[in-house]
Write a sequence for this structure.
């Protein structure tokens, strides 16, 4: 550790807190997935309109990250993070009280703008406190904590749906936002002191994005990690319809299946936390991108031969699990390359994840044809681009 703001004895709690903050996005999406059909009925909306609330959330989350990264590089992490969490909580209340799908979509957009602060700045805090090599290992440990959100959220969402209706899911998200604000305000110190902040004007701080986007190494890392995330969001958007409506899974059974994929993310991050230092982050990212494409091919073939459901589940498990290898390693490598703009680097990476996720989510919704084939095609394309991005990164690095 390089920052005295965090005492070694508190390191476990520190990583737990940061992992929980990164979980803002997954929690706000996964908790209400089992309730999507009920929301459509309750708000007299089409399934496509309700699915749009996912797409809009991804767009706002990515935009929020781009805003918070350079600002935190210039003015510090803590105040910016607290402001975003407060906005998230207020918008969650608006989601809970929505009386029409248009209101829900608008509130979800504002909610996502606030939630992006916690997710991106938690990663930047890690880079403030740890050396580049150790930061990648800590990011994997954080991702293990974050994986608990998709592991438990659909199951909790099913319980809340049965007991309180779909509004109960947003009440739980509201409670999460309020508790997170209190914990951050009380226990998270400022990890980027004034003497370590960039002294450039704010406009120049935002210009860091252009330097990153002109760097082929950075572009390769953004594609490798971002497109893997997009594949997962194609699954998140399409899977409620495919498994609940088409394959007749109960909401509880769907929640259990979703939890199994979260276990895969957890396991991949555990392996990465053990091997990233000895094998190297670049090698582990390569394993993730190649395995993700293999899983996407299995899914595509399963859909092409009459929707063999066990093979579909296996392919999805591989694809989703590999986000655990690609996320921590790609963002860690990117922040190590730009240590003076760690907030901007983390923000651009997170924004690319959710931006590509929005594209994949929209593509699945637009090509919806009453089957699972659009999901398989979108996942195959995103997995192929992810591997191409990794190969670009390796070629230019060498």
């Amino acid at each position: 550790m390089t920052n005295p703001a965090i005492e070694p004895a508190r390191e476990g709690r520190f990583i737990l807190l940061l992992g929980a903050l990164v979980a803002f996005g997954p929690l706000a999406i996964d908790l209400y997935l089992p309730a999507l059909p009920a929301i459509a009925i309750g708000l007299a909306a089409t399934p496509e309109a309700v699915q749009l609330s996912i797409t809009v959330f991804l767009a706002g989350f990515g935009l929020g990250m781009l805003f918070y990264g350079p600002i935190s590089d210039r003015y510090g992490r803590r105040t910016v993070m607290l402001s975003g969490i407060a906005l998230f909580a207020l918008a969650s209340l608006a989601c809970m009280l929505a009386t029409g799908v248009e209101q829900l979509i608008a509130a979800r957009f504002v909610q996502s703008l606030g939630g992006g602060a916690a997710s991106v700045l938690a990663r930047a805090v890690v880079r403030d406190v740890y050396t580049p090599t150790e930061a990648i290992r800590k990011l994997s440990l954080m991702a293990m904590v974050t994986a608990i959100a998709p592991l438990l959220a659909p199951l909790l969402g099913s319980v809340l749906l049965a007991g309180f209706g779909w509004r109960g899911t947003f009440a739980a998200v509201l409670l999460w936002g309020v508790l997170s604000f209190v914990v951050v305000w009380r226990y998270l110190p400022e990890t980027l002191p004034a003497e370590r902040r960039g002294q450039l004007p704010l406009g120049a701080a935002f210009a860091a994005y252009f330097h990153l986007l002109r760097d082929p190494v950075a572009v390769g890392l953004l594609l490798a990690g971002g497109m893997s995330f997009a594949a997962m969001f194609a699954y998140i958007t399409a899977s409620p319809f495919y498994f609940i409506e088409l394959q007749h899974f109960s909401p509880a059974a769907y929640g259990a299946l979703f939890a199994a994929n979260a276990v895969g993310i957890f396991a991949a991050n555990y392996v990465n936390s053990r091997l990233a230092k000895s094998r190297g982050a670049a090698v582990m990212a390569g394993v993730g991108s190649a395995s993700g494409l293999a899983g996407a091919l299995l899914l595509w073939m399963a859909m092409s031969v009459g929707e063999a459901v066990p093979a579909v589940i296996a392919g999805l498990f591989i694809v989703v699990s590999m986000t655990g290898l690609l996320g921590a390693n790609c963002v860690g490598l990117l922040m190590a390359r730009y240590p003076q703009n760690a907030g901007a680097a983390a923000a651009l990476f997170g924004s690319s994840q959710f931006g590509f996720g929005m594209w994949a989510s929209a593509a699945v919704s637009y090509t919806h044809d009453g089957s699972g084939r659009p999901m398989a095609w979108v996942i195959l394309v995103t997995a192929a681009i992810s591997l191409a991005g990794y190969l670009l990164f390796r070629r230019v690095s060498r």
